[in-house]
Amino acid sequence: MTTLEKKLKNPVWFSLNETHKKFRIEFDGVQFYHPEVCTFGAFTDVTKTANTLNTYSKSSQNFFLVSENETPLIDSKIVILEKKIEGCQMILDHLVDVKITEQIVPLTEKYRDEIYDLIWLVMPGYYQKRSFEMGNFFGILKHGKLVSISGQRLQTDDFIEVSAVVTHPDYTRRGYAKQLVAHTTKEILKSHKLPILHTDKGNSAIPLYEKLGYKITRDMNWWFYGKK
Fold it and tell me: 45 lies in which domain range?
């Protein structure tokens, strides 16, 4: 039986082996999401990454490998490293009660395009339209317009990741993200799973997450590649 700690060390890999296995593209020692859903991959054998990236690059112009501390190998004739995003993993240490003053609504299929447009406005580069299928999304609307969202991304039998926390630039500093993360965290706890999240090191949102009861537990690096 795989321990929770082992799954947290390789969250993309175990998401693709459990809750999200229907989205999995399998290789020998490397696994990826279907590129229409998410362009994330993970590995257990670093010696297999170069050939796999060459193959996956035929279906996606850009993509990520996610690892705690290993450096993937690449074939620089075909694939180039665009950047390494030095990130960290946070897990919920204790639940902090947050007063919810906004109406938070579950986001159904009809919001798929609005979610996509808002995320690409605020945080372009990783979200696909079918990423909506990875988990539940919640939002705050003003005057019929979706202005702030929070969603779920990586999932296993033991944890669910809070992700896609974005607010339209015209509606920041109103506590929307705080309320949405708190709401999404509580929804994850209702499913008897551990809430986790990932973010860049030095992200200004880290103090907010810590106030909500999350703590940094380990590095989690995102290697962003492009097809040459």
Answer: 4-88+223-227
Contacts with 52 (C-beta within 8 Å, 6 or more apart), sequence order: 27, 28, 29, 30, 32, 41, 43
DSSP 127: B
Q: How far apart are CA 199 and CA 165, in angstroms?
A: 10
154 shares a domain with 49: no
The string of pLDDT tens digits covering residues 3-56 is 999 999 999 999 999 999 999 999 989 999 999 999 999 999 999 999 999 999
Task: Look at the block and give the residue holding tokens 């779920």.
Answer: 152
pTM comes to 0.96
> What does the alpha-carbon distance between residue 131 and residue 155 come to, in Å, rounded to a whole number?
13
Whose structure tokens read 């170069």? 50
Non-local CB neighbours of 204 within 8 Å, separated by 6+ positions: none
Query: Residue 37 and residue 153: Cα distance in Å, rounded?
Result: 10
